[in-house]
Amino acid sequence: MTDPNHLETEPLTRTQILVVMGVTAVLLLIVAKIWQKLGSIALLDIEFTSGAFLLGIGVAGGIIVASSIIYRLWPAYRRSADAYLELVIKPLIWPDLIWLGLLPGLSEELLFRGVMLPALGLDLTAVIFSSLLFGILHLSGRQQWPYVVWATVVGFALGYSAWMTGNLLVPIVAHILTNLVSSSLWKAGKAVEISSSR
Q1: Which of these, 80, 97, 117, 71, lies nearest to 176 by C-alpha position?
Q2: What is the pTM (predicted TM-score) of this model?
């Protein structure tokens, strides 16, 4: 009998995870560029300012704190997140977490916030719609709906920051830092659990 709290997929190896991350990033970049060209869409501006970096760090901090609170208070989300992170992060070694931050942080932001928001009108409706699609992108099994709900909320925070600032750098920095810090905290927590159970 299958445990409903775990993913329906077999565990992946480190190499498989890295390949999937790389291929997914390239595919998202291709979709973004094709959509941008066919729709004659102007990419959301990227302005390298200290304010944008600081705001991105702040958004990431808010997401990380909210995620840790929800992780502790919502058991269904904790099970869903653990199953997802077990599949994705457990096989990776520490330096791989840099790629886990950079690849999705750049490719997903280019597509969902850089191209999709302007294509859909760069308004609240566009932020909501792109957030829903961002959440669905994180669906890896039927039991993963709590993780998808949280990914949708994160997508909204990232989209809202892009819409309000008009600067794609803000959600890029927030996404990269959120992935990097959250995955590092999860991996460190699992290492502590393993060492304390010995």
Answers
A1: 97
A2: 0.91
The pLDDT profile of the chain, 198 residues, written as one tens digit per residue, is 344 444 455 788 999 999 999 999 999 999 999 999 999 999 999 999 999 999 999 999 999 999 999 999 999 999 998 888 888 899 999 999 999 999 999 999 999 999 999 999 999 999 999 999 999 998 877 788 999 999 999 999 999 999 999 999 999 999 999 999 999 999 998 877 777 776
